[in-house]
Specification:
With 240 residues, the protein is of the alpha/beta class. Helices cover 31% and strands 27% of the residues. The protein is built from nine helices and eleven strands. The protein has helices at 8-11, 19-23, 32-44, 50-58, 67-70, 90-101, 119-127, 138-150, 187-191; strands at 79-82, 85-87, 109-113, 130-135, 156-160, 173-178, 180-181, 193-204, 208-216, 219-228, 231-232. It has a seven-stranded mixed beta sheet. A two-stranded antiparallel sheet has the order 1-2. Helix 7 links the parallel strand 3 (109-113) and strand 4 (130-135). Helix 3 runs antiparallel to helix 4 (50-58). Bound molecules: S-adenosyl-L-homocysteine. Residues 81, 85-88, 113-114, 116-117, 119-120, 134-137, 140, 162-164, 179-180, 231, 233-234 line the site of S-adenosyl-L-homocysteine. S-adenosyl-L-homocysteine (SAH) is lined by residues 81, 85-88, 113-114, 116-117, 119-120, 134-137, 140, 162-164, 179-180, 231, 233-234.
């Protein structure tokens, strides 16, 4: 079946998680039509979980970008968000989210490392009971929070901190996602993963792979989801 033939209304009907989502639909390049075109493309590329498609379908990615770039929000590309960082490519957001949703544990508690624009946070907040998100650049997280608050997503906890330490006070997590690439998987992220929980993150510096981990006691099942290019996971918090 071609992407054009996918009946999105059947597999992932539009259901605003809060009324504010409906109020921020956008027009033209930021309209529901534009979002649907992108979601069809992601479906054709293998993003098939109905809940993930539904979240991608209703989330106004244009709100997480500067006005000058909002018209490109529904292209399947990463875009700059300032401070040398990028909003992740929608396909990658879909792929990472799908890996977490398809794990054994229901997503009650989810940790995100690298809030960035807040777009991935918005997707996770629709699929999890509660999200803990960590960012090392304070102004980025403030901006993300303003948008997430305006959308009425009130199940998110925020911290400006070095995410390689995770968030020990809130652990264990059913799922952990990092949008920044460390040279090796930080031990704290494995330790803070619940039994049966899933972790997904890019690993590497110049050459990176998208790695999925499922924890079974001390045994870690590892999945390789292919080559990717993310910004590096940097140590400490950026000075204001
Ligand atoms: N999912 C975000 C991705 C932003 S890019 C989005 O789509 O907008 C990754 C983010 O990780 C950047 O904002 C960067 O500042 C942040 N980051 C890098 N190293 C980090 C660390 N050690 N702790 C927390 N955040 C980190």
């Amino acid at each position: 079946m071609g992407a054009d033939a996918v009946d999105l209304d059947r597999i992932a009907p539009v259901q605003w998680p809060t009324p504010a989502f409906g109020a921020h639909q956008g027009v033209g390049f930021t309209s529901q039509r534009a979002r649907d075109r992108l979601v069809r493309q992601l479906w054709a590329e293998g993003i098939r979980h109905p809940k993930v498609l539904q979240a991608l379908r209703v989330t106004p990615r244009h709100l997480f970008l500067d006005n000058a770039l909002a018209g490109r929000a529904y292209e399947n590309v990463a875009l700059p968000i300032g401070h040398g960082q990028t909003i992740s490519q929608p396909y990658i957001v879909g792929l990472m989210t799908q890996f977490l949703v398809e794990g054994d544990r229901p997503l009650r508690r989810v940790l995100e490392v690298g809030t960035g624009s807040g777009y991935q946070t918005a997707i996770l907040a629709q699929l999890a009971d509660e999200v803990w998100t960590v960012e090392r650049i304070a102004p980025l997280q403030q901006r993300a929070r303003r948008v997430l608050d305006a959308l009425g997503l009130d199940n998110i906890h925020y911290a400006v901190s070095d995410g390689s330490w995770g968030w020990p006070e809130a652990a264990p997590f059913d799922a952990i996602l990092s949008a920044a690439s460390p040279p090796e998987i930080p031990a704290a992220l494995i330790e803070q993963l619940a039994d049966g929980g899933r972790l997904i993150l890019p690993v590497g510096t110049a050459v990176q792979r998208l790695v999925g981990i499922e924890r079974h006691g001390d045994r870690l099942q590892q999945y390789d989801l292919g080559p990717v290019r993310f910004v590096p996971m940097l140590p400490g918090v950026e000075d204001a």
